[in-house]
Amino acid sequence: MDAQGRGRAGDNNVDPADQWVFDPDTGNYELRLDPGQAAARPSDRTAAGRRAARKRDAEVGDTDTRPLPTQRGRRDESAVDGDGERPAGGRAARRAAAARTATATAAEAGPAGRRKRKPKKSGKKRALHWTAGVVGFVLVAGCGAAYYIYQELDGNISKVDVGVENDAVSDGPVNLLIIGTDSRSGKGNGGYGDVGSVGHADTTILMHISKDRTNATALSIPRDMITDIPNCPTKQKDGSTKTVPGENQVRFNTSLGQEGRDPGCTWRTVEQMTGLKINHFMMADFNAVKELSTAVDGVEVCAAKDLNDPKSHLKLKAGRHTVKGEQALAFVRTRHAIGFGSDLDRIKMQQQFLSSLIRKLKSSAFSSPGKLYDVSQAATKALTVDTGIGTAGKLLDFGNDLKKVDIDKITFATVPVLDNPKDPATVILNKTAADPLFAMVRADHTLAKGKKGKGKKAAPVKKAPPEAVRVDVTNGGGPIGSAQETVDWLQNTKAAKLSTNAGNAPAKLAATRLEYAPNQADQAATLADWMGLPKSALKKSGQNAGDRQPMKLVLGKDFKAPGSPIEAPTETPDGVQNVNADDKNICAK
Description:
This protein is α/β, with parallel strands linked by helices. It is built from 14 helices and 26 strands. It has helices at 47-59, 91-109, 123-126, 138-141, 150-153, 263-274, 286-295, 326-333, 343-362, 369-382, 392-402, 431-442, 482-493, 521-531, and strands at 20-23, 28-32, 63-65, 158-160, 174-181, 201-209, 216-221, 225-229, 232-235, 241-244, 247-251, 280-284, 299-303, 307-309, 314-316, 319-323, 384-386, 410-414, 417-419, 427-429, 470-475, 498-504, 513-516, 538-540, 551-555, 578-580.
């Protein structure tokens, strides 16, 4: 039979219908995920054998006991008699045989109520977690479908060959690129904006999951940010490869759709911008929000004021609401009714919605197999992914690898930007805040705030103004010309006019070092903040310095360039907007 058909020979795949096995001990049907289990449970056991079997069953983690769903329309499903053979006759005869077996078993077992049934497992435990969903966030949320339907989901998934095929599961950190397109294709989407849109990168989130799977950081990238798009090889329908030329200083959202660019072009653009290597991508259109929000019976959102946006068609009174379908889509598209009406305000709406969706997926969304099925169908139908996770089986492995992250360890942040002085309709990257943020993520540091300790923190050192920072800079292992480059940067960018190039250091150093006197602590604090120096780089002497005595900054082998942090920060840099997915008190305003 075909690859997705029933009864493939030579492997252990089993028709999902045949995984429901009648248990004469309980009079119920059981879902057997291991094909070998059914044969190990003949109905003519002795009482002692039955008790031993029940004990074994209690220890089997993938055995599910629950009533069989409606059998109407099922094929090749018949009760099994005591000898392991199917009784002759049609369905009526087989049902009668099953009933006789159950009656005989009940009589042998004695009066009803003397033996306790095994407690039913919760909906979450009944299903093997399989993850995928609206623009990928259900991966971390733990969205799943029962194993017995995941093959059916295979045909729902669209995939694009971006020229990179990574393994579904990685031992290191995982970087998942999530793209929401503004394509107007699909039922009911023609009324949104440009009907003929090729589908640009309207919403882009780079989700970094830590190596130990304890935390995740989701970086929202503003669509109107001016950036450089590299050359991009794209696969054509005839199997050939066409390279789309790169462009400099264009809107980020044109990394997809424009000039025939595929998701691999957005992939390469984000890698170039952040320095992070991407493992996989997931892309979805407007229907993802509509269908998945409906599948989970709505997502709770909050408005701090009445919202009325004629562009997105959102109308909400102040307070908490449960939105789904068209209303959910209107919520994540809204920007004119909140804040300054910018794309950055819309990003905050999306982060609120996705945080609430994650909480929903982690809690009540999977209270029944039917709900699991609905959510999984909605998720996979909405997805386009790379070939590395282009099957339900690969997505299963990928999702199981990522589902360990707790909600309170998922942080949304927005890549920091500044108004573009050349074009008020666009923004530019704020490198001062973005570079340490990207370094923090590359170093696998979490943005999630930890629990506060009981001990008192040391009072922060007061920082000196730029004009008071006096420092001699020497090169003790950095690239050639680093001392002068650093002085130029300090004087022209930071207004530290009292910085001086003192040439090469007398000895090479592995690590950059700043030497200062006790009465120069305020100057050292300012310089360390500018340079991104770790505490280990600060060396305080025992005596105060004279009025005109400079500090000494020795650039070590770890120095790369001025403005590039020597060590990745462990705290979220100033000026980076961020929210925690577990924060239920966020309201649009």
